[in-house]
């Protein structure tokens, strides 16, 4: 299990945590390293256990999933957060994505699809439903980087376009014949130049400014 994707499950319902753990533990490439019952405990356990992926509920008593996401971003924790929610309203999902989630799935998701989603966000992909991406754009909160696109180099524009296409750093490296380390540097430069917080915002910025493939 040395190369397994380490997963932390954060949900206030024990039956949900148990169900997710039961399914995920039969996956050869996924290891559940812990659980948490609310957002505050989720942040603490993420810092302690350093999982690769966190499955995070949105609505929880006390510290909810959105606030937990914000705290993890402030701490600079590298874990990828996949929101697992029973709420379908955009007003519930959009704030979580704004706070740094790599994507979301619903609690009635097919088990195999959930495993696929975990592998996808771990690989660096962003999971956005078209209607939610549209809602994020409509909120017009991606203007932080507007007007700064001219500061990007041609290579950074290429990388940004591939981010918008949902490519991981590894896939971008292969497409552009670069090392993965070089791609990470380009991504960091893009976020800095456009004053954006994460890949999700970068992808939305690229879509808004016609740079997606």
Written description of the protein model:
By secondary structure, the protein is an alpha/beta fold. The chain is globular, with a radius of gyration of 17 Å. The protein starts with a strand and ends in a 5-residue tail after the last helix.
Secondary structure layout:
Layout: E1 5-10, H1 14-24, E2 30-36, H2 39-49, E3 53-56, H3 65-75, E4 80-85, H4 90-98, E5 103-106, H5 111-122, H6 130-138, H7 154-164, H8 169-176, H9 180-194, H10 199-208
Parallel strand pairs: 1-2, 1-3, 3-4, 4-5
- Major beta-sheet overview: 5 strands, parallel
The beta-strand count equals 5
* Order of strands, widest sheet: 2-1-3-4-5
> How are helices and strands ordered from N to C?
EHEHEHEHEHHHHHH
Task: Describe the structure concisely for a colleague.
With 213 residues, the protein is of the alpha/beta class. The chain has ten helices and five strands; from the N terminus they run βαβαβαβαβαααααα.
Task: State the main characteristics.
213 residues; alpha/beta
